[in-house]
Write a structure and sequence with these properties.
nuclear pore complex, transport, mainly alpha, GLE1
């Protein structure tokens, strides 16, 4: 509910602002240790990314309540935003976007980790699990760039707004596609913030969508074999529908004004 989200936001903001906060039956404050604030900044940013990786990966709609809190905290405490991006880029290099190359002297296990895979006892995680985690993080990022905390003063610009989303999209289509990954993440990103980008960039946005369909999609298709067609076909359906209707629907789970009255 909106009221619960406000409580969570206020608690985090109070903690970062140096006030005493009740948690787990005790009172804590960042004034109790000279490095406490840096530690809390770091752990909070890490926690936001983990929520994308776990919570949003499992429940897609949860991207919006998590993102609106993250966006509001980022606005008031810019250090959290910088650290959020650092954690995000490390766990999901595609959020840069960046595809790490295999360099001489790098072990295969180390390289798999650089690509974002979890490797335990020299065993790499399953591809579907990997894609689900990457999707969760990209969806959270796509939600953050379009959302503002509704109770802030909103005088200045968004600390990391839609222009970063536009840049991400442009950079993605300028890179050689990767099997599975590119189609999955483009779909996730556009499903979550395509509506906001469409409203902001209008004609430019539709030019980009046409470019993706006419030029970039065939390049993804060319490297995809028949066993890996799932994510590609889902992306194709999405592209076709949007271009046909000249409309990208509001994402499922988007926070409506009535949410804040709950």
């Amino acid at each position: 509910a909106g009221s619960q989200l406000r409580e969570i936001f206020d608690k985090i903001n109070n903690l970062l602002s140096g006030k005493s906060v009740q948690t787990g039956g005790r009172t804590v404050s960042v004034t109790q240790h000279p490095q406490a604030l840096d530690f809390v900044y770091y752990k909070l940013a890490e926690k936001f990314v983990s929520q994308g990786e776990e919570e949003v990966a499992a429940h897609r709609d949860s991207a919006f309540p998590i993102a609106v809190v993250a966006s509001g905290i980022w606005e008031l405490h810019p250090r959290v935003g910088e650290l959020f991006l650092a954690h995000l880029h490390k766990r999901c290099p595609y959020s840069v976007p960046f595809y790490p190359a295999l360099k001489e002297g790098t072990s295969m296990e180390e390289y798999q980790r650089m690509l974002g895979y979890q490797v335990k006892d020299s065993k790499m995680e399953q591809q579907d699990h990997f894609l689900k985690r990457m999707s969760g993080m990209i969806r959270l990022y796509a939600a953050i760039i379009q959302l503002r905390w509704p109770y802030g003063n909103k005088q200045g610009p968004h600390p990391h707004g839609l222009n970063y989303g536009w840049r991400w999209l442009a950079q993605m289509v300028n890179m050689e596609p990767l099997v599975d990954v590119t189609a999955t993440l483009l779909f996730d990103f556009l499903e979550v913030c395509g509506n906001a980008l469409m409203k902001q960039y209008r004609a430019q946005f539709w030019k980009m969508m046409l470019l993706i369909r006419e030029d970039y999609f065939p390049r993804i298709e060319a490297i995809t074999n028949t066993r890996q067609m799932g994510s590609l076909m889902r992306f194709k359906r999405f592209l076709e529908e949007c271009l046909q209707q000249k409309q990208i629907p509001l994402p499922k789970g988007a926070l409506k004004p009535s949410f804040w009255k709950s």
